[in-house]
Amino acid sequence: MWSIFSFELRQRMKMPSTHIYFGMFFCLAMLWVAAAGGAFPGAVISFGNKVWINAPFAISQTITTLGYLGTVIVAAVMGRAIQQDFEYRVQDFFFSAPINKAQYLIGRFLGSYLTLLYIFTSLGLGAWLATFLPNINAEHLGPNLFLAYLLPYLFNIIPNLFIFGAIFFVLAALTRRMLPVYISSVVLLVGYLVAASLSREPEYRQLAALLDPFGSRAISKLVEYWPIFDRNHRLIPFENVYLHNRLIWLSVAAMVFALGYWRFQFSSRIDGNKSSTVKPDQASEKVKSQTVTRYTPDFAQRKISHLLLSMTWLNLRETVKNIYFAVIVLTGILFLIALSINMGKMYGTQTYPVTYQVLDMLSGGFFLFMLIITTFYAGELVWREREAGIALMHDALPLPSWLFFIPKLLSLILLQGMLLLLVMVCGIVIQLLQGYTHFELGLYLRHLFLIDWPSYILLAVLALSLQVLINQKYLAYFAMILYFIASAARSLIGLEHPMLLYGQLPPLTYSDMNGFGHFIASFVWFLTYWSGAALILIVLSQLFWVRGSNEEWAARKQQARRALSPRIMASLALGFAMFFGAGGVLYYNINIANQYQSSFDRAEQTASYKRRDKRCQGRIQPR
To answer: Does residue 272 surpass a pLDDT of 70?
Structure first.
């Protein structure tokens, strides 16, 4: 076992990705604490009024919350620990070696577990070093306590790595695939989001604290009535609902690991030990009963449209009929139902679930699932033939490269449309369950399919293009994660201007009086602007689509130059014309005809008003 453990740990520590993850979470923790300490004007990170950023409560919430963001990293490390043996077809070397199942599984698990522990030590280190930055406001700082940084690891990070690691490791071991591992990470994230939704109502906070697999809600429940002094000085005690939460989820993880150990087959077969031998007479009868059919493929130009439809349908069907797709969709629906519990409540008073209110809840709640589904299945679609081992035969067909990329893009877009239709049905059901029957189907269709769907289409183009251009499945996933983080924190990283970050469309405000009003004009201009960028990405993806076994960048560039044609050049010209034409109009209206202000500029303007009018503070004001 120790040989397997040391081999796994040594291999992990040699991988650049391990140290990249460490550096990424180190920087994230420093930025998080620095933003909470006032280093970045306009940042909204806060642990409560007058709570120090290095108080035990704040440090515990920082490490736990940022650990929640690393769930995908845990899934990647733990899942790949055993799945990579089957992907590279080296499992028989381990199965025939003089080791048993316990040595193989526990050695792999412990090596990956210690790797993750090394990665997540960056959180505490980054949070601690951030307190020494020169631009931190002194009133946000208290004394640094060693136990304040140690206890979150003992009670949260170390248990959470075992909880999530056991689940992801067992799923990868039993299915020998990574997709169910990532799906399970989504389900666990939904558990956290459901707990966050339930915790808004006092009667559900105890349940939310127990359901949260990360333990963050349990900490919030435990210190709910602590005064400011206690939050700044007291260490988080391991008791009451916090202790119960940890025991529940550690018990679940232990049972999952035991079940996985029992079900794992220490062999290349995954269909049980039943013999699959066929008797000679049965085999001869089977051969005689088979009829040879000959089919001459027709690749004529008139059949291209038929092939486009057929390949689009094939990719869509293979995606939808997957059980993991059904699991993630069902999880999203249950999450929307959980969100609807608190929908429309104003100071404890229930209001009618009007359609625009339901749509706001559905669009915001299902957005995360649409991002996840689009990102994961973009990788599955691009790599499907290569992972099945039929890519060379597929690439040898006398078909243009666009006929490989466009059907995958269309199937992903249609998949998004099907999900939006399901969201629409879910919204109507929620209204029915609350006794409201004025559905406004036209508003559903306009909002979901004319406003939300175009933004998701832009996302689908980006996800597929990154898979093609980067040509590394998990590196492209990581690039999409960075894009999501940049979208969420664009004001902190200097990308707040609406023309800088791909796919950012202006929000629309709806009212019963005038609908979407004048907001539609700016939405259409931004959609045209980013559609031009999307068209450029589509053309580049067609040019650099990998065909054959030579995946070197130089060979792909040579292939792209040979593939340039008048149609390709015209498409590129159209994309650039849309991008720069609409971009010029937008830049004129945002920066020249009007004065653009970032959140920092607005905060500075407010501060200047206060400084200017401070002289009037003591004067008698009219009543």
So the answer is: no
